[in-house]
Specification:
The structure holds 2 protein chains of 2 kinds. Chain A is an alpha/beta fold. Chain A has 2 domains: about 1-80 and about 155-235, Rossmann fold (3-Layer(aba) Sandwich); about 85-150, no CATH class. Chain A has 10 helices and 10 strands. In chain A, the strands form 2 sheets. Chain A has a 6-stranded mixed beta sheet, sandwiched between helices. Chain A has a 4-stranded antiparallel beta sheet with strand order 2-1-4-5, with helices on one face. The longest helix of chain A has 16 residues, at about 165-180. The radius of gyration of chain B is 19 Å and the shape is globular. The N and C termini of chain B lie far apart (about 55 Å). Helix content of chain B is about 70%, strand content about 5%. In chain B, a hairpin with a 2-residue loop joins strand 2 and strand 3 (about 135). Classes of the chains: A alpha/beta, B mainly alpha. The interface between A and B is medium-sized, with 25 and 17 residues.
């Protein structure tokens, strides 16, 4: 079976500093893959290079197509949606407008998708015409995910979806991601909350200082002594 | 009192010209956080195209207006593509200096074409009517009407269309907008097109009101329109329009009731005072700089 997303020898540099060095991994259709690692390990840089926000060396293939010459906005049309770290809600736009913007690449009718996202996040329905800047952190995270879903992605990239949220909200975000996984969606998740992330993942990769250190199924990594001591706090 | 109303009408007319230009400054600032100092010279090119259309090609008013708007639209889009886009990720000051350079280029290019000043022949019949003692000309009415129409069209584009939604998103968080699937370069080009087109229309209105033109008219008028945008809170569309009418009213009323040589002195003093109390302008929001 061919992977949905295939990353080979990716490097990402900021000036003289290499944040990601020759990283390779793949995501198969229907999988939830988690990238683990400490702050500065290069996880976010990998997601940003996959979605095309920043340039990266090496090759990124999506459904077999080399994305090197495809700018970020066209990657969305191909089916890659990226929920960025820090959510990046458009604070001057209403909740509705944020969602509609997420559907930019879509041509068909959006009413059904809006209903679907609002059914998923009833809180957003209550805040529908409020500006995005007035939402709480948790609501903003829901809006960021909902906005990404509006493009009907085949691969959803999530960068630190639990960041800055209360434990209760973290749980509800993760149970939502688990539902996405159940429904057959393909997820690539960057997370610092390793314990939570491993409960969700099919497979995981561990990054350290921009290099791939470990990979395996979630169960394998959960039992790995290095992961246990470094990321699960044991 | 009739004198006051006459001057108020003049203020609305001048304010409309300032507003059309100020919108170009504020829209470009909105999407790029950059001040396009060549914009006053775009306006001058609009006035110059009005001269070409009216005096050399003997076109009627509407074709002249379309010629100026179309020509300046192309100029704005080309300038963005050639001069500003390569500097998109360079330090802000590089783009600002480049825009000053583009302005000097346009002034001298226009200067090199022909001897100046030029006289723009009247495009509209000098008809008018008297309303309660205030004389209203067809020209004043069309300036005000067309400006309002263009501003309303812009309002619809920005607030009711998909492209306008993208413009507003870019003004909030440009770097993340590509993740929505939005072709940012195209939207920025469209913003330049709209802003420049309005500047071209302003050039026609101005050349008809003050028919003696030279390549430097864009400097002082451009500054005043820029200041209008700053008064309103640069980046804010409603603010730019309001700022333009405030500035024009102060200017006209100062000239009408106080020694007119002090016009600019008083106008700019008021501006400075306003900025002391509202440094971000009337509609500007305090910006939190993230470190």
């Amino acid at each position: 079976m061919k992977p949905l997303l295939e990353v080979r020898d990716m490097t990402v540099s900021y000036g003289m500093i290499a944040a990601v060095r020759s990283v390779s991994f793949e995501v198969y259709s229907g999988e939830t893959v988690v990238l683990l690692g400490a702050n500065g390990a290069g996880k976010s840089s990998i997601l940003r290079a996959v979605s095309g926000l920043i340039p990266g060396g090496g090759t990124v293939r999506f459904e077999g197509e080399d994305l090197a010459a495809i700018p970020a906005h066209e990657r969305v049309a191909r089916g890659i949606a990226h929920v960025p770290e820090g959510r990046h809600i458009f604070g001057n736009l209403s909740v509705k407008e944020n969602l509609l913007l997420g559907a930019w690449v879509r041509r068909s009718s959006l009413a059904g998708d809006l209903d679907r996202v609002l059914a998923l996040f009833p809180r957003l329905k209550e805040r529908y015409s409020q500006s995005g800047g007035t939402l709480s952190g948790g609501e903003q995270q829901m809006l960021a995910v909902g906005r990404a879903l509006m493009s009907r992605p085949r691969l959803l990239l999530l960068d630190e979806p639990s960041m800055g949220l209360s434990p209760k909200l973290v749980e509800s975000i993760f149970s939502m991601l688990a539902d996405f996984h159940e429904s057959g969606m393909t997820l690539l998740v960057v997370e610092q909350n390793a314990a939570m992330a491993l409960t969700l993942a099919s497979r995981a990769y561990v990054l350290e200082a921009g290099e791939m250190k470990l990979s395996g199924t979630a169960a394998e990594l959960q039992d790995n002594p290095l992961v246990r001591s470094a990321y699960l706090g044991e | 009192m009739i004198y006051f109303f006459q001057q108020a009408l003049n203020a609305v007319q001048l304010g409309s010209v300032y507003a059309l230009i100020a919108l170009g400054y504020t829209m470009v600032y909105g999407v790029l956080s950059m001040i396009n100092f060549a914009h006053g010279d775009f306006f001058m090119v609009g006035a110059f195209l009005c001269f070409i259309g009216a005096a050399l090609w003997h076109l009627a008013f509407v074709p002249v207006l379309l010629l100026s708007m179309g020509g300046v639209t192309l100029l704005g889009v080309a300038t963005e593509r050639i001069a500003y886009r390569p500097l998109r990720n360079a330090p802000k000051v590089s783009a600002i200096i480049t825009s000053l350079g583009v302005g000097i280029f346009l002034e001298n290019f226009t200067l090199g074409l022909n001897p100046y000043p030029k006289y723009v022949p009247p495009l509209l019949p000098s008809l008018g009517f008297n309303a309660w003692g205030v004389s209203v000309s067809i020209f004043q009415l069309s300036t005000i009407g067309i400006s309002f129409g263009l501003m309303f069209a812009l309002h619809l584009i920005v607030n009711k269309t998909k492209a306008g939604l993208a413009m507003r998103a870019i003004s909030a968080d440009r770097l993340i907008v590509p993740l929505m699937g939005v072709p940012v370069d195209k939207i920025i080009a469209l913003t330049f097109a709209l802003g420049s087109g309005l500047g071209g229309a302003a050039g026609v209105m101005y050349a008809m009101a003050y028919p003696v033109i030279d390549p430097y008219i864009g400097i002082i008028v451009g500054w005043k329109a820029f200041i209008s945008a700053v008064i309103g809170g640069i980046g804010n569309i409603r603010g730019a329009v309001l700022g333009a009418y405030i500035l024009a009213t102060v200017e006209i009323m100062t000239a009408a009731f106080l020694p007119s040589t002090y016009r600019d002195l008083i106008t700019f003093s008021l501006l400075l005072t306003l900025l002391i109390f509202r440094p971000r302008g009337l509609f500007g929001k305090a910006e939190i700089q993230k470190v």
